[in-house]
Amino acid sequence: MKNKPSDIRLGIFGFGCVGQGLYDVLQTIEAAGIEVAKICVKDKEKLRSLPSSAFTYNPQELLQDESITILAELISDAEDAYGIVKQALQAGKTIVSANKKMLATHLPELLELQQKYKGTLLYEAAVGGSIPIIRILESYYSSEPLQQVSGILNGSSNFILSKMEAEGLSYTCALQQAQELGFAEADPALDVGGFDSVNKLCLIIAHAFGVSVKPEQVLRFGIDSITEHDLKFAERIGARIRLVATAVVDSGDQLYVRVLPALVSEQSELYRVTNETNGVTIAPVFAGEQFLKGRGAGSHPTGSAVWADVSAALSGYRYVYPKADTRAIALSKEYKINLYLRCPSSLVLPAADFIELNKISESEGVAYYTASIESETLKSLSAYLAAERIFMAEITPAQAHNIALKNCNTEAVVYS
Ligand SMILES: NC(=O)c1ccc[n+]([C@@H]2O[C@H](COP(=O)([O-])OP(=O)(O)OC[C@H]3O[C@@H](n4cnc5c(N)ncnc54)[C@H](OP(=O)(O)O)[C@@H]3O)[C@@H](O)[C@H]2O)c1
Question: What is the pLDDT of residue 3?
Fold first, then answer.
């Protein structure tokens, strides 16, 4: 298992898509010079590509081994991952993690432990796969205020949307392909329901705006009720549907956060982000908009991001959360959102919940609407919309206008 004789010993938790990816990267990069001490996995019966002596099934064998310099936590179980990272930080160790669900849920506590016991926690691979978004927010934009960070943060959902759009695949068939290729989480609801993007957005916000946002505070809706009707509707107005995570700060230092499907027009960089690729737009106050695009999932792209963290941590790199305490940014609850909605024509939408609800057209038992609604109302309505298999996507005011122009027979259901 030795790359070359070295004093640096790495303990790896997990040997699935990401763990194997990291291992491959270490084998290929000669300069890595890192000895993989042991790999901790769970399933004793599983066939492995390495001899059994490479593995342990006992996490304590790595956590209590004082000869190990650095740990990489790359397991799929968020609760067990929390236990591993917490124990490592309590022992003042250096650990890198790819587990966005665990990190987004426990970040404030883990940062306290890092501070108290002088350990190090890095997690670039947890956000945007191979895109070095956290490092850029931490280092390059450490002193410039940001207005917005938004983008496509879930490779699996984007793969599904792209395949449906380009090859006419059904949602189920595209999801199956994403799972076969290792882009989807063990529980695909995390991807297609928008939960995974929410977790990543919370981590981005901690670095971009210095605000601690809990996943449950983020307005969220997934893509799992999408059909070819929605793709055709988007195409008719020159747009594509993408699952977009957004964090925007206004001039009054109010922060607006959401993960929603959105109709993105050809002018948007996100229009051309396809398959498992992720894309993130950063809008700094002075530098002007920047766009980063790269592989958001997969064994080697994610393994590469873990290796970047391992090598940075070995050089003494730590996150400093440069925007914490610099600006009094507050999470806003109430704001207006413009929507496209599609549902069976037999269904009566709860019109009183909307600021505005316009029926655009109706054909073959399917009704199309544009609407505007308060964010908090949408949050409380989203479980009902999901249960009724209604699809919705955010639209811009310009798109709403364009849709109305193309459908002059628009019927205003309610307007206030
Ligand atoms: N796949 C991606 O493209 C990607 C991208 C970015 C981040 N991530 C994150 O990276 C992490 C790993 O994802 P993955 O895709 O590599 O998952 P995966 O392919 O399902 O592999 C998971 C690995 O974790 C091990 N494991 C699970 N519970 C364990 C426990 N309690 N103790 C020890 N090992 C345990 C499994 O052991 P066995 O081999 O014994 O089953 C397996 O080796 C997740 O947090 C995921 O969200 C994944």
Answer: 41
